[in-house]
Design brief:
The structure is a single chain. By secondary structure, the protein is mainly beta. It contains two helices and six strands, in the order ββββαββα. The chain has one domain: Nucleic acid-binding proteins (OB fold (Dihydrolipoamide Acetyltransferase, E2P), Beta Barrel), CATH 2.40.50. It has a five-stranded mixed β-barrel with strand order 1-3-4-6-5. The C terminus is likely disordered. It comes from Domibacillus aminovorans.
Length: 127
């Protein structure tokens, strides 16, 4: 049996680091992944895929990523069920991330060029 998932997409919200009752770090987030083809209207559809990230990977994701960050996730698909407040059974399908690669920096870490650096750019007149 093979259960392997590879996704590249953008975080739909800032990752929120939580801890389980036994102290394990956890991030549950959604990744927007564009489909590789266009629909009948010529637009690219997007799937929003629920991902669960554990332990050190969860801590690093919360520390280095934000809404809109481009990430790659390698993991497996898992399903689970639980009873909601009305005793209705809720079915969840999610990706359990084993590896997360950060493909972009936080916008707060991207530095703008200093104005003085712009002054040093010279243009050569065309003859």
């Amino acid at each position: 049996m093979i259960n392997q998932v590879t996704l590249v997409g953008r975080l739909t919200k800032n990752p929120e680091l939580k801890y389980t009752s036994d102290g394990r770090p956890l991030v549950q987030t959604t990744i927007a992944v564009s489909r590789p083809y266009r629909n009948a209207q010529g637009e690219t559809d997007t799937d929003f895929i629920y991902c669960t990230i554990w332990n050190r990977i969860a801590e690093n994701t919360a520390k280095y990523c934000e809404k809109g960050s481009l990430i790659a996730v390698l993991g497996t698909i898992q399903t689970r069920t639980y009873k909601d407040n009305t005793d209705k059974t809720v079915y969840v399908t999610e990706v359990l991330a084993h590896t997360v690669r950060f493909l972009s920096k936080k916008q707060s870490e991207v530095k703008e060029p200093a104005p003085a650096a712009l002054d040093m750019i010279q243009t050569v007149p065309l003859i």
